Inverse folding.
């Protein structure tokens, strides 16, 4: 071995001895101590984090209902330790299901209102007992037929029955009013309705008190309307759009150039 190689070997061994000496100070292995310190620090952090997680889970679990149950259980256990008989009774009560709420008492069904009682039970009674006595006109004397007409058999005239029936229903309803209802009945219903009935050119034209009832006048002659004229209920000319009047009625525009329609009408006998 040369002098140079011997020197190099000695230097390497000296450095290794120095590092080993540096790692051990006062008989303590620094590498092992450092590893232990690191483990303690990690364990401490993990423990702290676990406590926070556990605390959050507990807070989420401990709802008001759970806390109340825990409190009740603790009271029962404490009672059981002191007085077993009383605790058993309390436990039995706690296990009983809560009674179902009683159904609310149904409101007593209100009695149905009785139908309004009519003062005159029938139309003929209304005419005989009320109209004939209150709406008096001279219809019997000779020579009055040109001014006023009445038929003792009014019930054999469809128009008279319809008008008098409407008059009766209006009277039955308005008689119960506490104000001006009856005044309105006279002016708005009775006067115009009776004037139409007693008109010498009206429904009783061929009747009189002296001569009695004669067959009713013939129906008004009609001609079937063109197809599509009343397709939606209103009057429509098939060629011209209808107009809207001030009263709200739809009326067809006057037609021109149509064939004349002739209707044969039997003369009314006097």
């Amino acid at each position: 071995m040369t002098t140079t190689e011997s020197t190099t070997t000695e230097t390497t061994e000296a450095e290794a001895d120095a590092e080993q000496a540096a790692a051990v100070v006062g008989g303590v292995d620094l590498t092992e101590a450092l590893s232990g310190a690191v483990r303690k620090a990690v364990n401490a952090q993990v423990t702290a984090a676990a406590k926070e997680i556990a605390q959050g889970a507990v807070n989420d679990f401990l709802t008001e209902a759970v806390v109340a149950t825990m409190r009740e259980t603790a009271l029962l256990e404490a009672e059981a330790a002191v007085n077993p008989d009383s605790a058993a009774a309390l436990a039995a009560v706690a296990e009983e299901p809560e009674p179902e709420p009683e159904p609310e008492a149904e409101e007593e069904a209100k009695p149905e209102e009785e139908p309004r009682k009519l003062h005159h039970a029938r139309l003929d009674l209304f005419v005989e007992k009320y109209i004939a006595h209150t709406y008096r006109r001279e219809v019997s004397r000779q020579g009055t037929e040109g001014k006023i007409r009445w038929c003792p058999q009014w019930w054999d005239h469809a128009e008279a029955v319809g008008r008098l029936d409407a008059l009766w229903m209006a009277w039955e309803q308005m008689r119960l009013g506490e104000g001006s209802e009856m005044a309105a009945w006279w002016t708005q219903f009775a006067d115009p309705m009776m004037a139409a009935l007693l008109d010498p050119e009206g429904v009783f034209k061929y009747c009189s008190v002296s001569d009695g009832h004669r067959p009713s006048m013939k129906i008004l002659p009609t001609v079937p309307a063109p197809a599509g004229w009343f397709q939606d209920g209103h009057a429509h000319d098939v060629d011209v759009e209808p107009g809207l009047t001030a009263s709200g009625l739809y009326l067809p525009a006057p037609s021109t150039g149509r064939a004349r329609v002739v209707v044969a009408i039997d003369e009314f006998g006097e």
Q: What stands out?
A: The chain has a mean pLDDT of 73. The longest helix spans residues 30-61. The helical segments are 3-23, 30-61, 64-82, 84-95, 123-134, 158-174, 181-198.
